[in-house]
Amino acid sequence: MNANGMNPSHPQSLSNQALSNTTNLAGMQITEDLQKLLAILPEDIRQILEQHPHRDNLIEVVMDLGRFPEVRFPSGAEYLSETPVTAEQLNYCVERVGHFSGDNRAGLEKTLHRISAIRNRPGDIIGLTCRVGRAVFGTIGLIHDLVERGQSILMLGRPGVGKTTALREIARVLADDLQKRVVIIDTSNEIAGDGDIPHPAIGRARRMQVSRPELQHQVMIEAVENHTPEVIVIDEIGTELEALAARTIAERGVQLVGTAHGNQIENLIKNPTLSDLVGGIQAVTLGDDEARRRGSQKTVLERKAPPTFEIAVEMLERQRWVVHESVADTVDALLRGRKPNPQMRTVDDQNKVIITREFPDAPAPLERRTQSGLVAKPSGWRSSGQMQPLSRSSSPASAQTSYFDQLLHDSWQQPNSVGEVIDTIGPNGEDLPLHVYPYGVSRHQIEQVIRVLNLPVVLTKDMDSADAILGLRSHVKSHSKLRSIARSRQIPIHAVKASTVPQVSRALRRMLDMDDPGVPDAADLRLFTQSGSDDEIEALEEARLAVEQIVIPNGQPVELLPRSPKVRKMQHELVEHYRLKSDSFGDEPNRRLRIYPA
To answer: Which residues form the signal peptide (predicted)?
Structure first.
């Protein structure tokens, strides 16, 4: 009989088992079945533990041949007796535990306890670590909002901080509360317990066991192919094959929740085996201009691919977690020598989650070291404070968003007599969205304009389904067959002089009858960027401010700061958007733009 008056060997019902040895701490329900673990220990050790005042906080019992038996608590470790452990005591435990798998781990059926063995060279067991497994309900309150997003989550932390406990609770919440199909890859039977029947702590989630640890990556793929899961839960991703399997699963649209060895993301970046979990790292050789602009060496490290896990959680302590909401941004910042600014989540005395930033104050502009070793601070408009970083919510482009939205609403949809929304026709009688056949014009630029301005336009490769043709003027003039086909099918041709963003933008808006010369044409800088980097946005913002604050109102020419050829091309296109002229002058690397009034 155990402390609750029940026979430990008698099978309990699901509800009774979940309630046995249950305590509440800080709003969390803890289920441990401690008596079942004590039952496998030798009689003298078990009696001492049952009377120990801190028994409920027990972490693990360590028994090594010829040494004193040791117990470990959160506050520290202590010896249970001054009598060394004998081979008979070890055999007593092994007989009651059962089979040890290839990773020298065993468990107790229908419990979460884990018994790990240490063997000598001949293979005999000379040490045991009996670890208490607890199902803690409510432990993921710190990241409950992140779990609901449906993004893949990677848990990091030192051993014993509670990664597996959190993983178990996440699986239960996803399966029971969010009604998702969850499959747990349980290599060591630590998540769902030993035996064929999984522990009630995982809820409705299903568990797949792994016969040998080295086959975990195969079982991960098998789970996706055979059991149609929406979520895969993995504990201890530790090999390159497992990292590759995780990426394969993520690319199939399945949410991943897993743990990996390492305290912080920096550990994964430096680990060649697991770096693929955060996107992988590759060496990139920069051009002379780019290296000079960055103030770095020509060979730098950059992220190779999108991360397998979108969110990373560093479990510093049981109630203090660091959350990286975007692993991609964190890795990029670290590779560029910047400190990321993740969330710090803790729990207060009222069991409420407190979210702060690791660096509450915005960081100062970074200084960069030139090739001569001098520290170069930002110069030009940025240092004078006249130029502000582009804010998409407060930029003039955003102020005109309502104008574009209204035009789109008027030209694309209108309410009928009973208040329903119906499709209308375009300016030439065609149904919207407008199907455009591009000829000689950059498809990428057209798609960028459509996406940024949210135009009701669809590109087509079939001229039979086209409502209009957008072509380069020189190509259209030399292609008589194209003009003949368009004439016979009554498809209008809109020609542009050059394949630039301003001309493509005006042509598309002219097709939709949206190009009103009387309305100020605000520049949306997103139209002119290629990668959307801070450097591109800064250069375009400099050009925009120069045009709107100096060239147009004062009629004076303006010279901009030196930029790379790629960025100067973007600035030229932005100036062309305002129907102004600009030239590049000077020698590299000091070649810069000069903008002239109309």
So the answer is: none
Regarding whether 327 and 229 lie in a shared domain, the answer is yes
**Cα–Cα distance measured from residue 93 to residue 41, given in angstroms and rounded to the nearest whole number:** 6
Instruction: Tell me which amino acid residue 563 is.
Output: R
CA distances 105 to 55, 213, 227, 405, Å, are 23, 11, 27, 62
Nearest by Cα to 128 from 41, 201, 208: 41
Inter-axis angle of helices 240-251 and 216-227, nearest 10: 20
* Cross-strand bridge partners of residue 582: 595
Residue 374 lies in a domain: no
- How far is the CA of 53 from the CAs of 17, 28, 46, 73, 539, in angstroms? 24, 22, 14, 11, 68
Phi and psi, residue 17, nearest 5°: -65, -40
Mean pLDDT within 157-175: 88
d(CA 254, CA 248): 9
Quick one: pLDDT at residue 223?
93
Q: What is the pLDDT of residues 347-369, one digit of tens each?
A: 888 888 899 987 765 443 334 33
pLDDT band at 525 (very low <50, low <70, confident <90, very high): low
Q: In degrees to the nearest 10, what's the CA dihedral of 332, 302, 571, 583?
A: 150
Radius of gyration of the chain (CA): 33
Quote the CA–CA distance of 278 and 330 in Å, as a whole number. Answer: 9
Residue 386: pLDDT band (50, 70, 90) is very low
In what order do the strands lie in the sheet containing 558-559? Answer: 558-559, 592-596, 581-585
Strands of 221-360 (E only): list them.
Answer: 231-237, 255-260, 281-285, 299-303, 311-317, 320-324, 343-347, 353-357
Domain match, 190 and 273 both: yes
Instruction: Answer for the pair 557, 597: CB distance below 8 angstroms, yes or no.
Output: yes
Looking at the structure, tell me whether residues 331 and 352 fall in a common domain: yes
Q: Residue 443 is part of which domain span? A: 434-511
Predicted local confidence at residue 388, as pLDDT:
35
pLDDT score of 314 more than 90 = yes
Question: CA 376, CA 392: separation in Å to the nearest integer?
Answer: 28
What does pLDDT average to over the chain?
78
d(CA 455, CA 512): 9
- Can you give the pLDDT at residue 92? 92
Give dist(CA 379, CA 561) in Å, integer.
9
pLDDT, residue 130, reads: 92
pTM above 0.85, yes or no: no
Say how far apart CA 426 and CA 455 lie, in whole Å: 12
pLDDT in tens, 33-49: 788 889 999 999 999 89
223: Cβ contacts below 8 Å, ≥ 6 apart: 183, 185, 208, 229, 232
Residues recorded for the chain: 598
The CATH number assigned to the domain holding 588 equals 3.30.1370.50
Looking up residue 250, the CATH number of its domain turns out to be 3.40.50.300
CB 206 within 8 A of CB 183: yes
The pLDDT assigned to 532 comes to 67
Mark whether 191 and 321 lie in a shared domain.
yes
